[in-house]
């Protein structure tokens, strides 16, 4: 969700003012990242798939707080978030991105190259197939994973991540290190995931740019709910779901 705010205040205008104030009093993103966000927002009809700059300010801080040097991103889109993670890991770290769409992968690759960002590697293919076979980094397990791909695949991605990071495995045999962060985006879907009464979602897919039918929307929402339930029930994860932006879940692998 490219907008920075969630309207939790008395009026939408007040909510926007609070968001602008909070963003201005948070450490700024580098100019090349902000400029690319603005460019993609202007030129792409599907730019609502972008994370907001404000959300990225938080995610950059989270990555820096754990000293992340290896980041795995599932769902690259046009490479905006990859730029954020690249900034976090620095020149001696690296980012691996998994992207289903070859055209989007090329856009992302070109955008990164145009900004002399060379610590991001994008693998094209269905993450349901590429993630289970992803080579283990020679430098050590990943420190952070960002899930921002097809929402119906989230549960499977989480299952693979945990299975490939067994507590008994040696560091060289784990995909994620103990204490790694897993950040999942869009886990509230404009709030409709939290609606116990499904009738509250009537017409929602039209308002959020959903291009499929109501049955597809209901399946989509149900998949996100299952994922959220699995996250909080998983004993290996310490989980918090933030009702910010389009919903962000932050998990720590605690074995």
UniProtKB/TrEMBL annotation:
Coiled coil: none annotated. GO terms for biological process: methylation. It holds the Pfam family Methyltransf_3. GO terms for molecular function: O-methyltransferase activity; S-adenosylmethionine-dependent methyltransferase activity. PROSITE patterns: SAM_OMT_I. The keyword Transferase applies. SUPFAM superfamilies: S-adenosyl-L-methionine-dependent methyltransferases. It comes from the Eukaryota. Keywords: Methyltransferase, S-adenosyl-L-methionine, Transferase. Belongs to the class I-like SAM-binding methyltransferase superfamily. Cation-dependent O-methyltransferase family. This is O-methyltransferase.
